[in-house]
Amino acid sequence: MPQPAWLVAAIDALIYFYGLDRGPQLYRCRLVQAARRCYVLNSLASGRRLALRIILLQLAAAVLVGLVFLALGYREAMAAAAGATMVALGTALMSARFFSGVSGAGVALGRLLTGMFLKWIVIVGGLVVILFQFELPPLAAITGLAAAYAVYLLAFRFKG
User: Fold this and answer.
1) Taking the C-alpha atoms of 92, 93, 95 and 97 in order, what is their torsion angle to the nearest 10 degrees?
2) Which of 124, 126, 145 has its CA nearest to residue 134?
3) What is the pLDDT of residue 9?
4) What pLDDT is stored for residue 27 in this prediction?
5) How many angstroms from the chain centroid is the CA of residue 18?
6) What is the pLDDT of residues 96-137, one digit of tens each?
7) Nearest Cα to 125, choosing from 82, 66, 95?
8) What angle do CA 71, 72, 74 make, to 5 degrees?
9) Which residues of the chain have pLDDT under 50?
10) Cα 33 from Cα 144, distance rounded (Å)
11) Is residue 156 within a helix (H) or strand (E), and if so which, with residue range?
């Protein structure tokens, strides 16, 4: 029989306040077990799975855009695929930085901001290399970048 949430919270606070949260005999009590359960709406594991799904979909978009631009030529296909791959690489770098460990809210926000900063460095730097170093067509590269970003709309719309 489930206990009301306010009762479980009150018992948990009393158990912690009086120092009774230690000892093997206390773990057998059903109220203590209910108070110690942690209900999380969205775990880090689901965030990691969603990030991996987005990265794989962005790489699939890179291949698809590269194949579409192959009709216009080899250089256009390379530019489109490279533009989309830069976005996937930036997303992977941001995800690796953000999901590096469990911590408080301030540290998580710092990781998110540094991850976004690194992502944009990779994307802008990659576009500079694509456009100025290799001198590939800019329209194809920007189209690949836009196609990889369109994956976000699909990934967050259909999370299932």
Assistant:
1) 160
2) 126
3) 66
4) 52
5) 40
6) 999 887 778 888 899 999 999 999 999 999 999 999 999 999
7) 82
8) 90
9) 17-20
10) 52
11) helix 138-157
**How far is 112 from 95, CA to CA, in rounded Å?**
9
Q: What is the DSSP string of 47-86?
A: HHHHHHHHHHHHHHHHHHHHHHHTTT-HHHHHHHHHHHHH
- 54: which residues sit within 8 A by CB, 6+ positions away? 91, 151, 152, 155
Place of tokens 């799975």: 49
Q: How many angstroms separate the CA atoms of 94 and 88, rounded? A: 10
Q: What is the DSSP letter of 21?
A: T
Q: Rounded to the nearest 10 degrees, what angle do helices 44-69 and 138-157 cross at?
A: 140
Report CA 43 to chain centroid distance, whole Å.
12
The reported pLDDT for the residue numbered 115 is 94
Report if pTM > 0.85. Answer: no
Query: What is the rounded distance in angstroms from the CA atom of residue 24 to the CA atom of residue 16?
Result: 15
Ramachandran bin of 38, using left for φ above 0, alpha for ψ from -120 to 50, beta for the remaining angles: beta
